[in-house]
């Protein structure tokens, strides 16, 4: 049996966009980027953002320390009008080389129940509450690391030629085993500090009940669903 996808039901605009995606080439390795200035610049921008966020500090370590590898992942971002928005180079840790009890411990982070999402949406619709979806940029980089984690400097870093120079990670980074848990711990602690209470039904649901209003925040990995019976409360939260 031959399995194939038919494009007959797609609109002409959608079909054109699919063709653009199909013809777009994204590097699969660091070596492939040598002749492409856009990807080289993307690899300059990413460490700059990580340094501004105080994600790591470059240190010299003694032999015997556990070190996690790193890799560049490349992605082309498109706008809704099919034009290129930006070329994104993301530095990802090789978390599969981590050792339990050495550079990570707990990894569990709550996973929301879709039934709770449907209930929340139903409540918002039935009460005519405004509903907003918020995407957190570089979500895992906001999580603080409790463990001592070292990572190899990425290719193209100014000190990557030094075999003893490594990154001491202070913030969670994409690819680490504990990154989802660190992000959830950071966000939930901030929400509780400003008056939200975690639901006993779902750990991803937070509710703030005031004297005249109710504000609900629902965490879905790097997305937040926010609703309230008072639009001003949502604007303050933003």
Strand content: 25-35%
The helix/strand order is HHEEEEHEEEHEEEEH
Question: What's the total helix number?
Answer: 5
- Helical percentage: 25-40%
Shape: globular
Gyration radius, rounded: 22 Å
Structural class: alpha+beta
Strand order of the largest sheet: 5-11-10-9-8
What's the pLDDT, averaged over the residues? 84
Ranges where pLDDT stays below 50 over 5 or more residues in a row are none
State the end-to-end distance.
Answer: 52 Å
Largest sheet: 5 strands, antiparallel
Number of separate strands: 11
Describe this structure in words.
The protein has 238 residues and is an alpha+beta fold. Helices cover 26% and strands 28% of the residues. It is built from five helices and eleven strands, in the order ααββββαβββαββββα. Strand 3 and strand 4 form a beta hairpin. The mean pLDDT is 84.
Top keywords for this entry?
238 residues; alpha+beta; 5-stranded antiparallel beta sheet
